[in-house]
């Protein structure tokens, strides 16, 4: 019976740990607890119910056959012991932790002892006529315990022992006896195999969720690095080259580190955001103006008020005359994405380029459009920039909105400027609630 799973394997099978997420993307504790629910637990509960119901059935058989036993008092003593054993150990089969190997062996011993005792207590004529053994179908519960606990190998060993003992008690290969023992053997082995497959599936799910958690954390760090460290390195490179001398060497080293860091953070692109200042686009992010994010309130906030600091001589903001309410975290991510789009305008069109921000409060979403008067974006340029490690679009714009359940679309005609449409579904809950459908 040593072919069963280890305790560590069973623990892995009972737990499918969800991805560890921060307060903007994590499922609540209740949902994480639901992930830990194992498919094994219903089987243990069913086994407990089976043992109780079959005990009632066996006692009924005993009452009917009582006058026909050769030693009815002996049968009554065994039934009393079987009842006491089932009552005393019913909690043992409610969970894998309580159902130990020692209990399973003892439980099987009670069943096997009852089968062998039948040949002493019952008459030979009744035995040859196919009368039920003292424990009858209660024996199958002991075998199923082995199946659920240790898989099909344990089930095969336990059911084989029961089959041999039944044949010894009957003293011949009667067709009904063979039929019954084969049925128990096949059923227990099949259930044991299903349990092993379920455990393997749960371990696979747990591993996938752990990988997802690690990937999300890595990508969150990649976003933060792109929005802060890379900007500083690019600025040092640019200023050092302009100053010359020893500063030029420092700038060259900063440039090398920027390239290496871009290559590193380009390894995985799933969004995991925090509210950060407006980030770099797919151009050089160095030494350009950035608008500081205003402090966020605890509850919903007005998107128009958060976008107001971006308005200047070259940027026009238009929108509804009433507040456009969004959860604070979602509004911060949307404002940061708008800031990244405006950074693109400054880098690719020019510091004095004009841009327009249009906010539309639709019934099911908030749509923010950033339009410029630049030369437009060549076809395939965004995908090429992402491959080169310039992640402004991938992380700071599209990644932010995708995490919120929204999306971003670029509409660009060469020579006629570019429009970036940023959509966030309303009613979203960045803390783990409902999300809309992503468009990008």
UniProtKB/TrEMBL annotation:
The lineage of its organism: Bacteria, Bacillati, Actinomycetota, Actinomycetes, Kitasatosporales. Pfam families: DUF5931, HATPase_c, HisKA_3. It is an enzyme of class 2 (transferase). Residues 333-426 form the Histidine kinase/HSP90-like ATPase domain. It catalyses: ATP + protein L-histidine = ADP + protein N-phospho-L-histidine. It comes from Streptomyces lunalinharesii. Keywords: 4Fe-4S, Cytoplasm, Iron, Iron-sulfur, Kinase, Membrane, Metal-binding, Transferase, Transmembrane, Transmembrane helix, Two-component regulatory system. Its cofactor is [4Fe-4S] cluster. Residues 33-206 form the DUF5931 domain. Residues 1-32 are annotated as: Disordered. Residues 7-32 have a biased composition (Basic and acidic residues). It comes from the Bacteria. Residues 217-258 form the Signal transduction histidine kinase subgroup 3 dimerisation and phosphoacceptor domain. Its EC number is 2.7.13.3. NCBIfam families: HK_morpho_MacS. It is found in: Cytoplasm. SUPFAM superfamilies: ATPase domain of HSP90 chaperone/DNA topoisomerase II/histidine kinase. The chain crosses the membrane at residues 43-66, 72-90, 102-121, 141-165, 177-195. Member of the two-component regulatory system NreB/NreC involved in the control of dissimilatory nitrate/nitrite reduction in response to oxygen. NreB functions as a direct oxygen sensor histidine kinase which is autophosphorylated, in the absence of oxygen, probably at the conserved histidine residue, and transfers its phosphate group probably to a conserved aspartate residue of NreC. NreB/NreC activates the expression of the nitrate (narGHJI) and nitrite (nir) reductase operons, as well as the putative nitrate transporter gene narT. This is Oxygen sensor histidine kinase NreB. InterPro entries: DUF5931, HATPase_C_sf, HATPase_dom, Sensor_HK_TwoCompSys, Sig_transdc_His_kin-like_C, Sig_transdc_His_kin_sub3_dim/P.
């Amino acid at each position: 019976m040593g072919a069963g799973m280890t305790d560590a394997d069973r623990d892995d099978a009972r737990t499918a740990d969800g991805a560890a997420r921060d307060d903007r993307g994590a499922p609540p504790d209740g949902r994480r607890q639901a992930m830990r629910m194992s498919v094994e637990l219903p089987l243990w509960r069913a086994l407990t119910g089976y043992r109780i119901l079959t005990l009632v059935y066996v006692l009924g058989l005993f009452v009917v056959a009582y006058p026909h036993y050769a030693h009815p008092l002996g049968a009554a003593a065994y039934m009393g012991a079987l009842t006491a054993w089932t009552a005393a150990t019913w909690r043992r089969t409610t969970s894998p932790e309580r159902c130990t190997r020692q209990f399973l062996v003892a439980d099987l011993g009670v069943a096997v002892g009852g089968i062998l005792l039948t040949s002493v207590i019952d008459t030979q004529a009744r035995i040859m006529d196919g009368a039920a053994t003292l424990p009858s179908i209660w024996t199958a519960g002991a075998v199923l315990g082995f199946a659920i606990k240790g898989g099909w190998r344990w089930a095969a060993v336990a059911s084989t022992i029961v089959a041999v003992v039944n044949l010894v008690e009957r003293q011949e290969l009667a067709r009904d006896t063979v039929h019954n023992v084969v049925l128990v053997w096949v059923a227990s082995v099949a259930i044991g195999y299903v349990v092993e497959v379920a455990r393997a599936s749960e371990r696979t799910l747990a591993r996938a969720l752990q990988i997802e958690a690690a990937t999300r954390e890595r990508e969150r760090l990649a976003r933060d690095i792109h929005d802060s460290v890379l900007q500083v390195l690019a600025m040092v490179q640019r200023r050092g080259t302009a100053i010359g001398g020893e500063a030029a060497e420092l700038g060259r080293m900063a440039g090398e580190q920027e390239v290496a860091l871009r290559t590193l953070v380009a390894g995985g692109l799933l969004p995991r955001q925090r509210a950060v200042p407006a980030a770099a686009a797919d151009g050089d992010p160095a030494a350009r103006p950035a608008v500081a994010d205003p402090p966020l309130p605890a509850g919903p906030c007005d998107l128009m008020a958060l976008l107001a600091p971006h308005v200047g001589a070259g940027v026009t903001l238009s929108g509804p005359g009433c507040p456009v309410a969004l959860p604070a975290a979602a509004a911060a991510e949307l404002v940061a994405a708008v800031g990244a789009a405006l950074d693109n305008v400054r880098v690719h069109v020019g510091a004095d380029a004009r841009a327009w921000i249009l906010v539309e409060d639709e019934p099911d979403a908030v749509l923010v459009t950033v339009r410029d008067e630049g030369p437009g974006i060549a076809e395939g340029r965004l995908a090429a920039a992402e491959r080169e490690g310039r992640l402004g679009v991938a992380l700071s714009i599209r990644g932010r909105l995708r995490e919120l359940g929204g999306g971003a679309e670029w509409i660009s005609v060469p020579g006629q400027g570019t429009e970036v449409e940023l959509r966030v579904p309303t009613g979203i809950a960045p803390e783990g609630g409902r999300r809309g459908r992503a468009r990008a």
